[in-house]
Design goal:
The protein is of the alpha/beta class. The chain has two domains: about 160 residues, Medium-chain alcohol dehydrogenases, catalytic domain (Quinone Oxidoreductase, Chain A, domain 1), CATH 3.90.180; about 140 residues, Medium-chain alcohol dehydrogenases, catalytic domain (Quinone Oxidoreductase, Chain A, domain 1, Alpha-Beta Complex), CATH 3.90.180.10. β12, α9 and β13 form a beta-alpha-beta unit.
Length: about 325
């Protein structure tokens, strides 16, 4: 099979290459999936670039945790009825050397989720990290039904899903922040009731007006380092700040404003969801997908051979939305 891989951390153009590797065979409890599409996420890019560590956990890494394809082999103990099933994958490259940037991947059967009929494979490649992150951020520690919710980065890969999901979960008011008019249009199309430009709008004033002076119930935060100080001032007493990302590894929490408001902080990474939380997210995603309730903002599709270009697009923040590689175009 052909797969994109790297053996050292570094710039995408220098370390990523397309190679012919042995086609894997599933072991007991595993399935083999013939990949159609592979999703590129910021975590994939950071690992390849060596931003966290230059020491790779494996001698060779086939990147990407997200993807979608068709089950073509099953290992011992796996229901043969799964053969031919269209599936989307999660945590494929988490703690493992072999991700979805390959013609075939083998992984535990539980990590291959049926993809409802009519849902494009490219959309399936956006679910494991972006959609599941958005979903968990809105259901953890209680429902957003009837609440006022702010989605930071409402046009991004996670934020675009989060705007839609907040409405689906019954939020009374969904506010999204963006950095420009193109992104504002994306957030509005996703269903945001109010879209604010964090570069030009007075967020505190506008959110105060929008909530009648009550403050926000929940903030879904993409960059705690940049926004946490302001987030506290936007929140009502007893509100939640749910953080899934930060532009810096260390942040300062405004202690006194937070304790006065009884702020509840929740930090999480989608890779480490427990079984119950993941099952909840999978169930909700499956319901929404089957009903055609989710719109997928795929900003760029490229062939697997263009993986270096795809990584650079994500690394530079050059597109608003998901970047997906078409794996089944490889000869």
């Amino acid at each position: 099979m052909y797969a994109a891989c790297y053996e050292r951390a570094g710039p995408a153009d220098e370390v990523l290459s397309l190679r012919e590797l042995p086609t894997p065979v599933p072991r007991a409890g595993e399935v083999r999936v013939r990949m159609a599409c592979s999703g590129v996420n910021p975590s994939d890019v950071k690992t390849r670039a060596g931003l966290r560590t230059k020491i790779l956990p494996f001698a060779r890494i086939v990147p990407h945790s997200d993807g979608a394809g068709t089950v073509d082999q099953v290992g011992e103990g796996v229901d043969p009825a799964l053969l031919g099933a269209r599936v989307w994958l999660w945590n494929t490259a988490w703690g493992r050397p072999d991700g979805t940037a390959a013609q075939y991947v083998v992984l535990p059967a539980a990590q291959a989720v049926p993809l409802p009929a009519g849902v494009d494979m490219a959309a399936g490649a956006c679910l494991g990290i972006p959609a599941m992150t958005a979903c968990h951020a809105l259901v953890v520690d209680g429902s957003v039904e009837g609440q006022s919710v702010l989605i930071a980065g409402g046009a991004g890969a996670v934020g675009h899903y989060a705007v839609q999901m907040a409405k689906l979960l019954g939020a009374r008011q969904v506010i999204a922040t963006v950095s420009g008019e193109h992104k504002a249009a994306l957030a509005r199309d996703a269903g945001a009731d109010l879209v604010l430009n964090y570069r030009t709008d007075d967020l505190v004033k506008r959110c105060d007006e929008a909530t009648g002076g009550q403050g926000l119930d929940r903030i879904v935060e993409v960059d705690a380092a940049a926004n946490l100080q302001q987030d506290v001032s936007l929140l009502r007493t007893g509100g939640h700040i749910v953080v899934y990302g930060s532009g810096a590894p260390e942040i300062t929490v405004p202690f006194f404003p937070s304790i006065v408001k009884n702020v509840a902080y929740r930090f999480f990474i989608v890779y480490n969801l427990d079984l119950k939380d993941r099952a909840t997210a999978v169930e909700l995603l499956t319901q929404w997908l089957a009903a055609g309730r989710l719109h997928h903002n795929i900003a760029k599709r490229l062939p697997l051979q263009s993986i270096a270009e795809a990584h650079k697009l994500v690394e530079q923040g050059a597109v608003a939305g998901n970047v997906v590689l078409d794996v089944d175009t490889v000869p």
